[in-house]
Automatic annotation (TrEMBL):
Residues 36-202 form the Calcineurin-like phosphoesterase domain. It comes from the Bacteria. Belongs to the metallophosphoesterase superfamily. YfcE family. It comes from Halobacteriovorax marinus (strain ATCC BAA-682 / DSM 15412 / SJ) (Bacteriovorax marinus). This is Calcineurin-like phosphoesterase domain-containing protein. The lineage of its organism: Bacteria, Pseudomonadati, Bdellovibrionota, Bacteriovoracia, Bacteriovoracales.
Length: 277
């Protein structure tokens, strides 16, 4: 774990670039126009997954100079494993589709890209003002654990129990952004940019944390040329189900989502700004 301090007033977090070059470039343009320094930008992992441009996406990360931890996809690639490490139940749609896109990455990722992935840490601990942030991919101890807004409070509390009080967790992996207040902690999912949030829109999401008379968290969305990303996937014979998701905003299935949250599919998420400390 890397422990660092940031003295700026604003930090940016996003996850799941998922080899989506168009979304990555669009986010870079947005943050460049807001004059956000790359050292204040953090990716929560899964730089690579479903889409067609793994090496090109890594190139943008490298040139941009932002921080990233590794996600389960990078962990599996670096460990020369044969699956994406999401622990999808065998035979489910996610499991079958992941064999296709994961194998595409393994066959196409260059040694130069792999060398970059090998430099990524598992997590960051950041001091931001008086606040302590812990940046992780999935769960605190299990990189592939899925957490959603509707995950039970008991499961969240058990997960944060080993952490210092008041620590703010910023996670990725599960693909839908949210802000969740716990007893002594906050759990934030920064959202992903490489696939829609299953809300019927094609938007990508990121998180801004701002020090301004307290600590403010804002979930922001943006649009990009997702049609082009989708077409490239089709040309490379990547799963058409995910290529369609880029255009419909609806996931191929809801296997990983808690039952209580499944009714939210197709309901457009709202941007949100909240004082959290
Ligand atoms: Fe992941």
């Amino acid at each position: 774990m890397k422990l660092e301090r940031r003295d700026s007033k604003k930090l940016i977090f996003f996850g799941g670039a998922y080899s989506n070059l168009e979304a990555t470039i669009e986010l870079k343009n947005i943050l460049d126009s807001k004059r956000i320094s790359p050292k204040d930008i953090f990716c929560t992992g899964d730089i690579l997954a479903y889409c067609a441009d793994p090496n090109e996406t890594i190139e943008v990360f490298k040139e941009w100079g932002i921080n990233s931890i590794y996600g389960n996809v990078e962990e599996q690639l670096v460990g020369d494993q044969e699956n994406c490490g999401c622990n999808f139940k065998e035979g489910t749609e996610c499991d079958i589709l992941s064999r296709n896109w994961y194998e595409y990455i393994r066959s196409n990722v260059t040694e130069e890209s792999m060398n970059y992935l090998r430099t990524l840490p598992a997590s960051f601990s950041i001091k931001f003002g008086d606040h302590s942030l812990r940046i992780i991919h999935g769960g605190v101890n299990d990189i592939s654990k899925f957490f959603f807004k509707e995950t039970s409070i008991e499961i969240f509390e058990k997960e944060v129990a080993p952490l210092a009080d008041e620590q703010i967790v910023i996670a990725g992996h599960s693909g839908i952004p949210f802000l969740k207040e716990l007893k002594n902690h906050y759990w934030i999912n920064a959202g992903v940019i490489g696939m829609p949030a299953n809300d019927g829109t094609t938007r990508a999401w990121y998180l801004e944390l701002t020090l301004e008379d307290g600590l403010w968290a804002s979930l922001h969305s943006f649009s990009y040329n997702s049609k082009s990303t989708s077409e490239k996937m089709n040309k490379k014979n990547l799963p058409s189900e995910y290529a369609s998701t880029l255009k419909s905003g609806i996931w191929p299935n809801q296997d990983i989502i808690p039952i209580a949250q499944r009714d939210n599919q197709g309901i457009a998420l709202k941007e949100e700004k909240r004082k959290i400390k």
